[in-house]
Amino acid sequence: MRPVALSSRHEPRSRVIARDSSADGDARKARVLFCLGGPGAGKGTQCAKLEAEFGFVHLSAGDLLRAERASGSADGELIEAYIAEGKIVPVRVTLNLIRKAMQASVAHTFVIDGFPRNSDNLEGWDELMSDVTDVGGVLFYDVSHDVMQERIMKRGETSGRSDDNAEAALKRFRTYEESTRPIIEHFKKRGKLIAVPAAGDVDEVWGLTRAAIEALEVYQE
């Protein structure tokens, strides 16, 4: 999380919204944008575009967990059991992986997708990360269960993920509605929800995402 000027390769237009400045040498809090949506909402695809165009560092909670599961670590089996059941992995595990990834980065502005997924996640973040981060809000991809399930089934043809199947999808939808939807409402009530209709194709949703991010003063220098 060390501040550093972003490379010009992240600057297709006249400015970069997620620009970092280390000229004064001040130690600043990392800026964070959470990204939420149901399974198959397109979070990862759009966050990758945010990274390429605006200079955010994209951290996927799901990808970090799957990598840890594959590493053979002590937490690997626990992670596998939770993912296979569509349940939310204990916050201590997820937060530890996110914090390590942030500390390993030289960037200062992050979009974290798939987190926080429940009240325990949010409380853990506030307790352990609020001293080193400022959260600008939640980017929320809003799409119906039918569209998400169709995308999951299509993705499952090639992804090799243990949770990309109809049975796991239903469990994940249930968990999303019961645990993550209240988090979305929490940020909405505080005026920190950036809702993007996400039923369209990738380019259509990206156009809406770009417009939403450009309107966020918190990510502009």
Automatic annotation (TrEMBL):
**InterPro entries reported for this sequence:** Adenylat/UMP-CMP_kin (IPR000850), Adenylat_kinase_CS (IPR033690), P-loop_NTPase (IPR027417), UMP_CMP_kinase (IPR006266)
Catalysed reactions, as listed in the record: dCMP + ATP = dCDP + ADP; UMP + ATP = UDP + ADP; CMP + ATP = CDP + ADP
Per UniProt, which keywords does this protein have? ATP-binding, Cytoplasm, Kinase, Nucleotide-binding, Nucleus, Pyrimidine biosynthesis, Transferase
**One GO term of the cellular component aspect?**
cytoplasm
Q: How is the cofactor bound?
A: Binds 1 Mg(2+) ion per monomer.
Residues that hold CMP according to the record: N121
Let me see what the UniProt entry remarks about domains: Consists of three domains, a large central CORE domain and two small peripheral domains, NMPbind and LID, which undergo movements during catalysis. The LID domain closes over the site of phosphoryl transfer upon ATP binding. Assembling and dissambling the active center during each catalytic cycle provides an effective means to prevent ATP hydrolysis.
The Swiss-Prot or TrEMBL record describes its family as follows:
Belongs to the adenylate kinase family. UMP-CMP kinase subfamily.
Q: What's the protein name? A: UMP-CMP kinase
